[in-house]
Design a protein that fits this description.
Protein name: Translocating chain-associated membrane protein
Biased composition (Basic and acidic residues): 359-369
Strand content: under 5%
Helix content: over 70%
Shape: globular
Number of strands: 4
Structural class: mainly alpha
Radius of gyration: 30 Å
Organism: Xyrichtys novacula
Biased composition (Basic residues): 331-344
Number of helices: 11
Largest sheet: 2 strands, antiparallel
Keywords: Endoplasmic reticulum, Membrane, Protein transport, Translocation, Transmembrane, Transmembrane helix, Transport
């Protein structure tokens, strides 16, 4: 993310600089149009598509007291809801940037490189913390952790509770908002490919789990991944405040490797064994059943390739850190002997002057003779 320079001059209306400086206000006005649409009966049906979660299914539970439980499935109308919450994510991004991160940047006076990385870690830390807490609460309430068999038992999982469906809607909205943010934040050209790669990976995996009705497995893997990423970005924020505090990176490195192993284990267990041995085999688009060999292999291949790519990036990152640390240590070792050598030379020079100089007793004796 680049540094936005504030100037006293007002840019021309609808120019690039005008849109970048006022993008949060413009997006807020667009979001308010949808909210105001709820007031009028003519537009309320249209506005509801964007604001509320669609495809509600009411199921009556049998028991002593018959109760109605609301569940949701996915459909094409979810695109409108995702678009609205993408606007909300842009607004929240601007609020965190202006009222939290920019104030800290003014106090710390970071360099351009640190400024960009600090903004990135600050934004992602807030998102990962919120997403991890929300996702963990869903896992606990639905008992997915206490009973892992539910990850594949009863597939296809076409019906979701409200919290789970809204969670996936917000996740897709957030990662879609990262695309226009590349423009709004004036991201450097050399950083854009890296940003596009990890944004695309998030969108493909989250949308894949949502569409293929692997939402339970997707939720578990997201919570696990977000926890590890949260630790990394918090460690980086601490490092920027005090460069001697690097313990967090060591803990993150261990958890990162464990996270990759857990991700592969859960994926193989759910897709490779659980769904492969399930009774409900076959492809049925209407019923939401995608339990066929080709799709299972594709899902596992996508997960394995992504984990391998992340491990490759992780190894390169660690090698670069070790190389920089080794160079810093070698420079320190070179500086210490040179300083001690200069002190010795200076001391020898003084002794030479005292033993053979003009003011030495021997010199005075030779001079008088």
């Amino acid at each position: 993310m680049g540094i936005r320079k504030k100037t006293n001059k007002n840019p021309p209306v609808l120019s690039h600089e005008f849109v970048i400086q006022n993008h949060a206000d413009i997006v807020s006005c667009v979001a308010m149009v949808f909210l105001l649409g709820l007031i009028f009966e003519v537009t309320s049906k249209f506005a509801v598509l964007f604001i509320t979660v669609q495809y509600n299914v009411t199921i009556s539970t049998t028991g002593p007291e018959e109760t109605a439980v609301n569940h949701f499935h996915h459909g094409i109308k979810d695109l409108a809801t995702i678009f609205f919450y993408m606007l909300v994510a842009i607004i929240m991004h601007a609020i965190i940037q202006e009222y939290v991160l920019d104030k800290i940047n003014r106090k710390k006076h970071f360099s351009k490189t640190k400024h960009s990385k600090f903004n990135e870690s600050g934004q992602l830390s807030a998102f990962y913390l919120f997403s991890f807490g929300w996702g963990a609460s869903i896992l606990l309430s639905e008992n997915f952790l206490s009973n892992p068999v539910t990850l594949w038992e009863g597939y296809p999982h076409t019906l979701m509770p409200f919290q789970m469906k809204f969670y996936f809607i917000c996740q897709l909205g957030y990662w879609l908002h990262s695309l226009p943010e590349l423009y709004f934040q004036k991201t450097k050209k050399e950083d854009i490919p890296r940003q596009l790669v990890y944004i695309s990976l998030y969108l493909v995996h989250i949308a894949g789990a949502y569409i293929l009705n692997l939402n339970r497995l997707g939720l578990v893997l997201l919570v696990l991944h977000y926890f590890v990423e949260l630790l990394f970005h918090i460690s980086r924020l601490i490092y920027f405040s005090n460069e001697n505090r690097q313990t967090g990176f060591t803990i993150w490195a261990v958890l990162f490797v464990l996270g990759r192993l857990l991700t592969l284990s859960l994926s193989v267990l759910t897709v490779g064994f659980g769904l492969a041995n399930a009774e409900n085999q076959g492809f049925d688009w209407a019923a939401g059943n995608f339990n066929v060999l080709f799709i299972r292999i594709t899902v596992l291949a996508a997960i394995c390739l992504t984990q391998a790519f992340m491990m490759w990036k992780f190894i390169n990152f660690q090698l670069r850190r070790w190389r920089e640390h080794a160079q810093a240590q070698s420079l320190k070792k070179k500086q210490v002997p040179s300083k001690s050598k200069s002190k010795k030379d200076k001391a020898n020079g003084v002794n030479g002057v005292n033993s053979h100089g003009a003011d030495s007793p021997r010199a005075r004796k030779e001079k008088s003779s």
